[in-house]
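writing this on my phone so excuse typos. first protein, seq and then structure
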Amino acid sequence: MIPSLSLGTPTPERPLRAFGAARSRPRGGRPADGASSPDPGALPPALLQALQIEVARRLEGLLAGDFRSSRYGEGLELAQLRPYEPGDDVRLIEWNATARTGVPHVRVNLAERVLVTWLLLDTSPSMQFGTADRRKAEVAAGAALAIGHVATRRGNRLGLLTFGDTRPRALPPAQGRHGLIGLLAALQEAPETAPVGTTSLAAVLREVGSRARQRGLVVVVSDFRAPLDWRPPLLQLLRRHDVLAIEVRDPREQELADVGEVWLVDPETGSQVRVDTGDPALRARFAAAAAEERSGVARALAAVGVPHVVLSTRGDWLRALAVFLGGRRR
């Protein structure tokens, strides 16, 4: 069994979509060098709990501080000093600044408010793909736990919407991570594998826009293997909320191994095509088209000002995520 990635012969003019496991018949009866490793399998509930503990432990050491409010109001954290104006509360006078300048100054503090974070989690069949250390769904689950750990500090609340399968779930914003952990465990026990059609990121962006009344943070965890029709609802969402994009990739999605003739299967539509991966020109076109498709996603996000990080199924994805989140502290 050779996991694979594309429908039809890829070309720069024909973008690639995500694909799952494919049936293969390598020449000579054995996989060529560079063939994928064995399927990493699903994440057991006990390991999911252990991952939650490991995420919390490592993030405590890698991150410091919390997200700050972008509004002024009653609070304890100083935003700025300004000259006193008639009607200001005299209790806010900053005496040190007043003594230095000879002009009365008052403190303007950041408003203390509960931050509501919405996590949009891709649970489409393409997320079950994995040829390296783990599946994309497992990296997404770990990223969700990391976001949950950061987003529920100091009484802040976390809401969750899943998308891309036949049973989308929703958790209203709440304190703590118990609901998130329970949902992730349920998703691991019954992942979506049957074809469900093209994933619609645009639809879930519109849904969270209708649900999220209070200004907050929206985090999208996905492989972004869907049509780039989500720009309009994303722009609408950005009018009120901050948005972060966490993309999950597998190394084999960017290149084909030379394993002879294989069937490539789209896990979301069920479409199949037979190709000869022994053709160097085909592999080169595939790699070029895959790189251009991923660049297109990055350009679309950058054009609207959405911070974007790529996590891989190979290696230490948590450190890459922690560096990204640490750089987003405001």
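second protein below, same order as before
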Amino acid sequence: MVTAMILADTHIEESPHHMPRKFKKGYFVQGQFVAEGSELDLELKRELKGGDEPSRTDLKRESDELQKLGESLLSLRADLFEKAALPDKLTEAVQEAKRITNFEGKRRQMQFIGKLMRKLEPADVQGIRDALQEQVQGSAQETMNLHLAEQWRDRLIADDDAFAIWFNSFPETDTQQLRALIRQARKDAPPADKAAVSQGLAPRQGRAYREIFQLVRDHLTTHPEPESDNDAPYTD
């Protein structure tokens, strides 16, 4: 941005009637006039000096990021919040923000949280980022396990061969309980309702159907399924 700099002693600003109105000292950079003393002028001079001092734009960007990071603390899970080991003052400010229901009161409290965030050490800020990232990853894993449990439930009920595949992956399963649930789910299966299907309505399922899902989900959560293309549940 600092290349192609052309110095200009003055720059004439014209009024709507094309009459000279004001003279400014400055220069042109890539066709853009930069007035001396302006924020852009100061930033360009810092770039020319090659200093490490952050510009106002950089400081504003960092401040906004820390403000948003502080707001995210309100939705951070309790265990992860504790794990982040935040300073007492920030912890109390976040707890107070959760209690405030008045819009203006909450807005002022969030500004206070942003102020506290800007005083944190870099290690504390990184700890907050790590906790938020862990929460996002955990939510994604939980969603994946739910879909996987649904697939396994449907496969176990529909395909006799699926039981052996499941047991091969999860040998700690109570086989007698699972076989009994599968038999009951097949008995409870409602007859096909073409009208409901055409309307996109799911048929009402029995208790065994739901218990199979719960059993499968518990195993997937506590003992992640081994990665194997042959053992993965399929979808039609």
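Residues 103 and 125 are 26 Å apart (CA to CA). thats all i got for now
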